[in-house]
Amino acid sequence: MEWYLPVIWAGLIGTAVAMYVILDGFDLGIGILFPFARKEEDRDLMMNSVAPFWDGNETWLVLGGGGLWVAFPLAYSIIMPALYLPVIGMLLALVFRGVSFEFRWVAKPTHHMWDIAFTGGSIVAAFLQGVILGGLLQGIDVADGQYAGGAFDWLTPFSLFVGLAVVAGYALLGATWLIMRTSGPVQELGRRYAPTLLLVVLAAMGIISLWTPLSIGRVAERWFATPNIFFLWPIPLAALLVAYGIWRWVERGREVLPFIGTILLFLLGYAGLVISNVPYLVPPNLTFWDTAAAPSSQIFFLMGTIFLLPMVLGYTAFVYWVFRGKIAPGEGYH
C-alpha cells in the first residue's frame, strides 16, 4: 500500500474538520448567545450577521464525513456505531436550526417557536459535537475489525465535559464575531460576554489537557516523555499568550483582532488534540493505515477532491468577501 495516500487523506479530513469548527463554530455561537439579546431588533441583527454564511459553513462537515467514508471505510464503520446516537442528535439539531433560519422571518410576529429552535438547535449541536469528540478521544472498543462496545459507551463524564467545553468555545467565537461584525448594543453584548467566556474556555482547555494524559497513558507518553516535552511545551505557552492577547484586545476596544485571536486559540487546541492522537484514527488501536481503503479507491476519490476542494475554497472566500464589513440594523437575509 502506498503509505502516503492515507496521510494525504488524513490531512484533508483534518483540514475539513478544522474549517468546520472555525466557520460553523461562530454561527453556532450566535445561536448560543441568542437568548441574551433582549430586544427583537438585536436578535434580528445577530441572525442576519451569519445568514449569508451558515449553510456554506456546513459544507465542511459534509466534506469531512464523506472523506472519512470513502478513504477510511473501516474507521467509518466503527466510529458510526460507537457514536450513532450523538451523531443523529447533532444532525437533527442542525436541521431544526437550519429550518429556523427560513421560517423565523415568515412567521413573525408569532415566531417564538423558531427562536427556541434556533437557540436549542445551536446549543444541542455544539454540545453533541463535543460529546462526539470526547467519545472518540477516550477510545473505542474494537474486536475483529468491528465495534465491540455498547450503545452508550460514549456517555461518560469526560465526553459530557468536552461537550460543555465546546459550547463555551463556540459561544466565545460567536461573541468575538459580534464584536467584529456589528455595532451598538449587539457589539456590546459580545464585548460583555467575551472575557467571561474566554476564562471558561481557558479553564476547560486546562482541565482537558490534564484529564487526557492522566487517564490515557499513550497521551501522557506523547507529551511528557523526553525529548517530546522539549518540542511541545511552546504549544500551551502560545495558547496562554494568545488568550492574553484576546483579553487585551477586547479590553482596548479592538474589533477584528479578538476574532482572529479566538481562531488561533482554537487552532492551537486542535493541534494539541492532533499531537495527542496521531496516527490513530480510531483510538487507541487503529491507525490511518489500518483503516484505509484500497489505494485505487483513494486515488480515484482524490482526483475528484482535487477539483472539488478549490471550488469549495473559492466559494467560501467569495461569499466572505462579498458580505465583508459590518452589518447595520435592517440589513440582511429575510
Structural description of this entry:
The chain has helices spanning about 5-35, 40-50, 55, 60-70, 75-80, 85-105, 110-135, 155-180, 185-215, 215-225, 230, 235-250, 255-275, 290, 295-320; strands at about 140-145, 145, 280, 285. With about 325 residues, the protein is mainly alpha-helical. It has a two-stranded antiparallel ribbon. The chain has a two-stranded antiparallel sheet with strand order 3-4. The longest helix is centred in the middle third of the chain and has 31 residues, at about 185-215. It is globular and about 55 Å long. The N and C termini lie far apart (about 50 Å). The model has no long low-confidence stretch (mean pLDDT about 90).
Low-confidence stretches: none
Shape: globular
- The name of the CATH topology is Formate dehydrogenase/DMSO reductase fold
**So, CATH architecture?**
Up-down Bundle
Number of domains: 1
Radius of gyration: 20 Å
- Write out the strand line-up for the largest beta sheet, numbering strands in chain order: 1-2
Task: Enumerate how many helices there are, as a single number.
Answer: 15
What is the N-to-C succession of helices and strands?
A: HHHHHHHEEHHHHHHEEHH
Largest sheet: 2 strands, antiparallel
Tell how many strands the DSSP assignment holds: 4
Overall pLDDT confidence: 90
Helix content: over 70%
What is the top-level CATH class?
Answer: Mainly Alpha
Q: Alpha-carbon distance between the termini?
A: 52 Å
